[in-house]
Every structure is written in structure tokens, then in C-alpha cells.
Amino acid sequence: MSSLLDPLAQWLEANAIQGELEAYVRKHAAAFAERDEYDHACFDIYRGYDALVRRILTEFLEEIRSDAHLCAVGSQATPERLLSELRQEGAALRRDAAGKRLQELLEITSFEEFAAAAGRLRRQAETEAACLLAGMAVRVAGGASRASPDARLEALEPDALRAFGPPRR
Could you tell me the end-to-end alpha-carbon distance of the chain, in angstroms, rounded to an integer? Predict the structure, then answer.
């Protein structure tokens, strides 16, 4: 019996699944501002993510159904059965590219992990936006000094760029 992980990893890579999952988290990251408690809407967002992962696994199973007799899950496999078989074969412990793909797919398995990932992506987006704004401010200030020969462009103090950054915590 062959490993289920290799065809799954190839399928995940070919269908850019990691990008799809990250896009979902990134899209909803703003709802997960740092706080002690999250509202019901945040839990619904997580359930949407969980449904997305299940849909992805179901699509994979549908695609391999014709060859399912060759593997342990069979033709009536469910995402839960697939994950059980992957667990039994120790797929998540593999250190190769296929193991890494599975680890990426299963990186978020709880609401808390989703909230943490959303928080990381939200902070990353805030930092990227701050850098973009700072760069635009420097270009605008530089353009103003070139447009007016009498204008004097003072060196920006480090604190001036910090004003464009994300709020300090």
C-alpha cells in the first residue's frame, strides 16, 4: 500500500492550496484585533476556515477516487478517514517536502491557532502598510523639494518615520 501523503502533497502544491488558506486568514485578519475575548462572528469565521479545509480534503478525495482502491481510504473516504490514515502512517512526522505540505495544511486546527495566525497576518499587514506610507511620504517630500528650488528638505528624524508605523502595544 502506498503512502497517501505523496499524492496529497502533490495535489496541494498543484492547486496552490496554501495560498488559498492564507488568503482566507488574511481576508478575515482585521476581525481578530488583539483582545481578551472574541465575539461569535470571529468563531463563525474560524468555522468557515474549518469548512474550507474540509472542502479541500473532499476535493482531493474526489479527484483520487478512481485510484482509491489502491490506497487505505477506499472509495467512500471522508476527510476524517483521510486524516486518520495519514496519522497512522506518521505522515506529519516526515521531514521531506510532502511532510511540510501536510504540516502547513494542518497548521491551524483550533480557534486559538486561527486567532493567532490572523493576528500575525494583521500585524504583518500593518507593518507593510506603514512601510509603504513612509516610503510614499519620503517620495512626496523629495518631490516637493525638487519642485521648489527654495524648499529645504530636512532630514527625517527616526521618530518621524515611526509615526507611520502600526500602533505600539
Answer: 53
